[in-house]
């Protein structure tokens, strides 16, 4: 009688462990496509998008409108990640979209920037003001104090076909296309829509 109870208890424990494993596997299988093609939460790291985005804020990033999914594993080195296959979905980013992107030679490190140049555009920065194809854009989201410094004279630069020119809103403190060059479409992995956290600062991003 005692032996039967022990066997029953052992079977119950084994079954419980298997159920937990199955639950985790199913959850991962659901989460991966959502993260790849639906949406993702990304934390801001740094000050290059001040004052549009602040260091430490949590952004809601959509993938269903446009995305690029890298088929690699977290433990791979940067070179292997960049050689991995990519699935690019949706349409194309629009001028002034705030996006999550990557740079050549940096693996899958995420950067948050604003698209200012589309394929075929000529980009120039004069005294901190953006000119696209000769036309000046005021960019009201940029504070005047961020327009000064050595980085705020640039170009002209012709954006190659199939590539995009990105810059941070903190123009004198941003590692962007002025030093990295334009980035290809498959380096743009998502569209920043809102700030979700901290809750007191929740807002849409334009």
3D structure, described in words:
- With 206 residues, this protein is an alpha+beta fold.
- 22% of the residues lie in helices and 33% in strands.
- The strands form 3 sheets. Strands 1, 2, 5, 6, 11, 12, 13 and 14 form an 8-stranded antiparallel β-sheet that branches.
- A hairpin with a 5-residue loop joins β13 (188-197) and β14 (203-204).
- It starts with a helix and ends with a strand.
Characteristics of this structure?
33% strand, 206 residues, elongated, four-stranded antiparallel β-sheet, 14 strands, alpha+beta, eight-stranded antiparallel β-sheet
Compact overview of the structure:
The chain is an alpha+beta fold.
Write the layout of secondary structure elements.
Layout: H1 2-37, E1 39-43, E2 58-62, E3 66-70, H2 78-83, E4 86-90, E5 98-101, E6 111-117, E7 122-126, E8 129-132, E9 135-137, E10 154-158, E11 163-167, H3 177-180, E12 183-184, E13 188-197, E14 203-204
Antiparallel strand pairs: 1-2, 2-13, 3-4, 5-6, 5-13, 6-11, 7-8, 7-10, 8-9, 11-12, 13-14
């Amino acid at each position: 009688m005692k032996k039967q109870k022990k066997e029953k208890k052992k079977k119950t424990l084994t079954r419980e462990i298997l159920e937990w494993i199955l639950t985790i596997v199913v959850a991962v299988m659901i989460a991966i496509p959502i993260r790849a093609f639906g949406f993702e939460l990304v934390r801001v790291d740094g000050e290059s998008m001040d004052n549009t985005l602040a260091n430490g804020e949590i952004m809601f990033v959509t993938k269903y409108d446009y995305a690029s999914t890298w088929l690699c594993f977290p433990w791979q080195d940067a070179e292997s990640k960049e050689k991995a296959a990519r699935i690019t979905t949706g349409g194309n980013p629009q001028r002034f979209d705030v996006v999550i992107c990557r740079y050549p030679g940096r693996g899958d490190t995420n950067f948050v920037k604003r698209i200012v140049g589309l394929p075929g555009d000529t980009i120039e920065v004069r005294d901190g003001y953006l000119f696209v194809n000769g036309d000046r854009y005021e960019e009201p989201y940029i504070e005047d104090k961020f327009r000064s410094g050595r980085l705020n004279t640039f170009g002209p630069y012709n954006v190659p076909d199939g590539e995009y020119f990105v810059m941070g809103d903190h123009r004198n403190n941003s590692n962007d296309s002025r030093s990295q060059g334009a980035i290809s479409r498959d380096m743009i992995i998502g569209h920043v829509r809102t700030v979700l956290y901290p809750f007191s600062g929740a807002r849409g991003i334009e």
